[in-house]
Amino acid sequence: SLVVLFGATAGAYGAKLGSDERELILLVWQVVDLQSKKVGTLHKSLVKADNLDLSDQCREVSGLTPEGLGKAEPLDRVLQQFSQLVSSDLKVLGRNSYTLCSDGQLLIRQVLHPETSKKNFLLSDCFYSFYDLRKEFHTCYPSSAAVKDQTIKTMAEYLGLGTDEAEEDFGVWQVKTMVAIIFSMLSEGCNHVFTEPETVKYKYETGPCSKSETVDSETVIRARGLPWQSSDQDIARFFKGLNIAKGGVALCLNSQGRRNGEALVRFVNSEQRDLALERHKHHMGSRYIEVYKATGEEFLKIAGGTSNEVAQFLSKENQVIIRMRGLPFTATQEDVLGFLGQECPVTGGKEGLLFVKYPDGRPTGDAFVLFSCEEYAQNALKKHKEILGKRYIELFRSTAAEVQQVLNRYMSTPLIPTLPTPIIPVIPPPYSIATGSARDCVRLRGLPYTAGIDDILEFMGDATGDIKPHGVHMVLNQQGRPSGDAFIQMKSADKAFMVAQKCHKKMMKDRYVEVFQCSGEEMNFVLMGGTLNRSGLSPPPCKLPCLSPPAYAAFQTAAVIPAEAAALYQTQALLPTTRTPQASAAAPPAVTYYPAQAAQLYMNYTAYYPSPPVSPTTVGYIAAPPGAVAAAATAAHTPILPQPGALVRMQGLPYNTGMKEILSFFQGYQYAPDDYNGLIQLSDQARSVLQAPKEWVCL
């Protein structure tokens, strides 16, 4: 037997049914005995929605009113009545089992399953299997229109059924016409057999994903705006009614290994993916979730793995995964099992634990744990921020894809951080940023945060030819992002005055930009971290320049750094001497080295990246090739940093930190004091501290 089912919501109708998250307001159904070709009673039931505000389309098509719906039963009661009435009709027809049959998949997948999931009650088993009348019709009549273009009306017209929609109530005509279509398909000329129903998965299945798999890009979406604590099960619930592939939810992590509010989801076929895209800006709790197309390559990059250890760990199916973070480095499997206790037993004991380690075997403080059921996982989550040893432990829900990502991230970390070769020696020409009181510079304030060098040059118009080489300087904030300010060095004060007059409050994209004439001295104050406002100049917190070019979206055009561009990153700026009377007596030669990675910066007009509080991320303190360093040292007779060697920059120090506290922080690390005296000029007091005989030394 079939139960022909039709429904409508308070919002969109037809091909957009369910796309606006509106609630169900109408159900109409009738039982059909396929063997005897008899039918049961036709039932029509209104559903009381939480929000009775009907759309104009709904009012026009259905003829329903909020007053009439206000007297109806809620959805859970209507579904109970549905089950009872269907059972009664089946008994009358001498049948005991049935399968639903609907006009397309939207009513079941996009309306009933999502709404009942949000309202926290379960659908009966009959709603997890159904026949799509449009697909069955196209199978029976291959010459008819494509499945996506079918409607009840077009199918009836194809068969020449003379039914008048205006003569029946809304919903009743649709069900009667669907029943007539089914009987036509069962006639002697067709003898159609309903054999392969559509299925809805009861729950999401976890599992590993290998990088060697082939993932169809037509089955992947990207969900954005997720709550950071959401798990793969939460995402599967958001897409309730659609079939997600096994292990098909991959939560994305940021550079710190924390979730960034995005996930890649892989569905079993493109049809399910297309339905998922219709849930764009549907809600998860109080947040709306954006849904976009993605590629198979993106999914494999996040979810794919090659580690046999991870594959073995994830081979236990249908397990709940919990991530532990902040474990003591000395923690053992026994310590973790003891911390979790008997109320939340780990699947397989020690085999259900996976410690995350660096390539050299050092622990990272992270671990993943498997639990066989939701109850055990909930008991474990209650231990969030409890103490193990002397540290509090964070516990979060996790996914198979997150396990792969975290392991891939740490296992790909080199033991000794290196940059790609080749390393190109560049001897910079004597070039420095202009100083002085001559007002030959302009300041741009209020730039769009997405503005790049090309945008500024276009904004300048004909005045671009009057900009000095390397004269465009972008100002970044403390997070290394564009601050909305920029400075431009012009060839003369007159040119700067003309630009300020011509471009002041001119529009760039959707914002107007203020342009002021200023001096090189004022520009340098801001570039070094000071402020320039109506009250005058406020000196920077640290007058030592520290160039730290981070990589962000506004500068991604690849270009080879010209030799003259190297002047922007002077060695003296990276390793400034202390401000003593003897500081200027003898300076080391300016030998600057740039890796191939740095060539990704756009340097047609060189961007200046002043941001003292931020550590270098793209062009760092890079050791030069030994031969080049030796040649430079021989030529200047000045000690140069030996190989191997490195400098570190400390960020976030307390303001009252002294030399002794810093050296104590690096206790246990070796350094060679004599080799650094010529490179970093120190006061006598500092040098005496460095050279004092101790068990520890720094740098």
TrEMBL record:
SUPFAM superfamilies per UniProt: Ribonuclease H-like, RNA-binding domain, RBD
Compartments, as annotated in UniProt: Nucleus
Gene3D superfamilies associated with the record: 3.30.70.330, Ribonuclease H-like superfamily/Ribonuclease H
InterPro entries on file: ESRP, Nucleotide-bd_a/b_plait_sf, RBD_domain_sf, RNaseH-like_sf, RNaseH_sf, RRM_dom
Entry keyword set: mRNA processing, mRNA splicing, Nucleus, Repeat, RNA-binding
GO cellular component, one term: nucleus
Gene Ontology MF, one: RNA binding
GO biological process, one term: RNA splicing
Domain RRM residue range list: 320-400
Family, as annotated: Belongs to the ESRP family.
Name of the protein this chain belongs to: Epithelial splicing regulatory protein 2
Protein species of origin: Anthoscopus minutus
Gene: Esrp2
